[in-house]
Amino acid sequence: MCGTTASWIPLAEEGKWERVVTAVRVKDTDRIKQNIDAYQGINENTVATRQICMLVTICGPGLDGATTTHYHLDHETALYCTEGKAVMFWGDELEVMLEVEAGDFVYIPPFTPHKTFSRSRTEGATFVVARTDPLEQERVVTTPELDDGRCESRIAWID
Prior knowledge:
CATH topology: Jelly Rolls
InterPro entries: Cupin_2, RmlC-like_jellyroll, RmlC_Cupin_sf, UCP037087
Number of helices: 1
Pfam family, one: Cupin_2
Order of helices and strands: HEEEEEEEEEEE
Oligomer: single chain
Number of domains: 1
Domain Cupin type-2: 66-123
Protein name: Cupin domain-containing protein
Strand content: 35-45%
């Protein structure tokens, strides 16, 4: 509502939030803990965030482009697939499979092991990722014991 006093203004006046709008332009990817490339945009290292991060991740083509199996401590994750088709395996033993494609939104609860593959041997899958964690990489826990080949035979390749 224009012209009214918003309830959040007292929080800014108390110094709880720095009221600065910031743009982050990322030119290069980093190889992140999940063993994929990412454009790390919004996080505690780039802006004054205290509660969120936002990045773009790229699962490369084929088996070599997959994430390592991992989960996120205490934080929810939301994904939006912008390009490609992917399959995500999740659960304590990666027993559940979810196929996603460009235009799909995905929600991952905290402490949920998951591993993602592009379903193409020639093209990757790209995701916009938002998480309730300003320290995006510090609370990622990899679970290499689940990276034992249990998922690969279940992938329905598209090419």
